[in-house]
Structure formats: C-alpha cells, structure tokens
Amino acid sequence: MAGSRRSPRVLWVDDRPQGNHHERAALARLQVEVVCATRTDEALALVRAAQPPFDLVISDWLRDGDGPDAGLALARAMH
Description:
18% strand, alpha/beta
C-alpha cells in the first residue's frame, strides 16, 4: 500500500534476555519489533533469513558458550 510504513525491526542478541526486559518493552511501546536470539549461530541464521532485513542488531559482548568475544565475532560474521 502506497505510503504505508513498516515498523522498525531490531535483533537483540543476549544469552540473558531477561536482563534487558525493560528496554525491549520500551521499544515495543514505540512500535519497534524486537526479535531475540541467545547464541551467535542463532543470530546469524536470523540475519540471513530476515525479510525485510533488520534495521539494527544489538549484541552483548560476552555470551556463555559463544566465547569471550562473541559480540565481535557476530559483527565480523555479519560484515
């Protein structure tokens, strides 16, 4: 439909998503769709399959099971 706008989409990658509940709720109130992933491989699969693509990816730096530089590894893999 001409002139219609889709809501922004954010991928939030964090192995402890309960820690950012309030931030995700605030984004939802702004009509931002937030998709969560807890692992790097899960996030990469979501990024590759996303249609339309995510407008923003937020990632923590450390994730249990993904190593001490998981956020950096995710950014490099997405580049």
